[in-house]
Structure formats: C-alpha cells, structure tokens
Amino acid sequence: MDSRFAGDTRDPAVNVTGWVLLVTCTLSVLVRLGTKFQLFHKLHADDYFIIASMIMGAVQCICVSMAVSFGYGKHFNLVTEADFIVVMKYLYSASLVSVASLALSKLSIVAWVLNLAPFDRLIAYITGLAVIIWALVAIMGSAFQCAIPEPWNIWSGKCFNLMAWQYFVNISNIITDLCVISQGLFLAHQLQIALKKRLLVSVVFLSRLLLGHRLTHRDSVIGSIIAELILIHNSITVVDPTYQSCYITIAQSLVQSLSIITASCAQLKPFLTWLQPKELQI
C-alpha cells in the first residue's frame, strides 16, 4: 500500500479536501455562467471577477497539492530539508494567490451590486476600494513576511511576528466581508421591489455570514475565518510544521471556496428569474 496513506499523516485530508472544494466551487461558477448566458446572452464585469477568482483558487489548490507531494502532511522528522524548503515555497505561493482569490470574489459581489443598483455607486466604490486596499496590503505583507532573499522561509528565516500578521489579515478579511454584506443589505433596503424579494436579496448576502445555520457557523465564510483564527491561535508553538499546520491550510481552502460559492449564489436561475430584468439593470 502507498505509504502516503499509511500511519499518522494528514496529507490525504489536505489533498482530498482541497480538490473536492475546488471542484465544488468550479461547478458553482459554471452553473452561474451558464445561467447568465441563458438569461442575458453575455457576461458582465462581476462574472469576469469570479472567473479570475476561480482561476486563482485553482492555482492555490495546485500549490498546496504540490506541497503535499513533497511531504506536507507528514511529520517533520520524515521530511528531508530539501523537500521542506520546497514545501515552504509552495505554501508561500498558495498564501498569495489565496488572498487574490478572496479579493476577486468580493469584487465580483461589489460589481454585481453596482449593476443591480447603478443609481447608488458611492457605497459600491467605497466597498470595492476597501477590498482592493486590503488585498494589496495582505499580498505585499505576505510577500515580504521574511527577509529577502528567502521571503518564504517561515521556519529559519528572519521574519516579523507571523502570528500577529495572520490575525491582522484574517480580522481585516472579516471586516471587508462585513462591508460587502452591509452593501448588499443597503441595496436590499433601497430597491423598490416587493418585501418578499427584498428579503430574498438580504438572505443571499447574509449567506456569507449564516450559511449552514449551525451554532458555530463554521460553514459560512466568516465562520470559517474565525475557525482559522482559532487554529492559528492553537498553533502558537509549532514543533512539527509540516504536520501541525495542515488544518490551517484546510481552513484557508474552505474560506476561499465558500467565498466563491456564496458569491455565485445570487447568480443562480431561481434568483435571477424571480427579480424582473428591469430591476436587475443589467
């Protein structure tokens, strides 16, 4: 039997979870695009943002999968020094494209709201700007988290406080998500449509916060980010980096995938056909 699946190892969990989530969010995007083509015979700015987000998500999944192939998920003492360097490089790349994917999925929602309510652009522009600033700060900070020429070397390199940085990135991620949700709720309040439809618009945006309806909300975007923060807090002392960090990687993949999936919910046929075309303004 392949040794990868033998003994105390987390690499199957990381790999399988990542690919299952990628397939799921890819299907959600394809259904979304198919619906838009069927109803409007063209794509819009929000669709291109979500396509770019999905591509970045695929790159992130490939990077994590490559890290697994070099020993990520196994105990540190079973991974050679050369392989561990490769693992760190792939995880470094994955962290950068993951932020890009998250930002693009948020911008997809912002662009869709702008199409839905072009009469009130200021809030959409402010929200979009906040997302872009967050993404630039998060990407630049993560890109130079450790000293050049080894910015990927979080194990023996000279780095700033990585745990504090992860807290900042994730908490600011929650804040930008709340801004996106608030933008959607404001839109629902402003639209001159029936109360039932207005509530539906609100539910679509609140899905990023409440999806799953469980006490922990771990199946929502924000709930998954909180779960990631808890995992980061619990890994203050890391002595087995290729093994202990795996659940954090899984949480990151879950956040990324749910962000894409919830951004596509409002583009599914039942929702788009319920709202009249004149109300969609697209």
Polypeptide structure, described:
- The protein has 282 residues and is mainly alpha-helical.
- It has a single domain, classed as Rhopdopsin 7-helix transmembrane proteins.
- The chain is 73% helix and 0% strand.
- It has eleven helices and no strands.
- It has helices at 11-40, 45-69, 81-116, 121-143, 162-190, 195-210, 221-234, 241-244, 246-265, 269-274, 277-280.
- Helix 2 packs antiparallel against helix 3, helix 4 runs antiparallel to helix 5 (162-190) and helix 7 (221-234) runs antiparallel to helix 9.
- It is elongated.
- The chain starts with 10 loop residues before the first helix and ends with a helix.
The topology string of helices and strands comes to: HHHHHHHHHHH
Low-confidence stretches: 1-6, 211-218, 276-282
Approximate strand percentage? under 5%
Named at the architecture level, the CATH assignment is Up-down Bundle
The tally of domains stands at: 1
Let me know the largest β-sheet.
none
Mean pLDDT: 84
Share in helix: over 70%
Ends apart, CA distance between termini: 55 Å
CATH topology: Rhopdopsin 7-helix transmembrane proteins
User: What would you call the shape?
Assistant: elongated
Pfam family, one: Fung_rhodopsin
InterPro entries: Rhodopsin_dom_fungi (IPR049326)
Keywords: Membrane, Transmembrane, Transmembrane helix
Protein name: Rhodopsin domain-containing protein
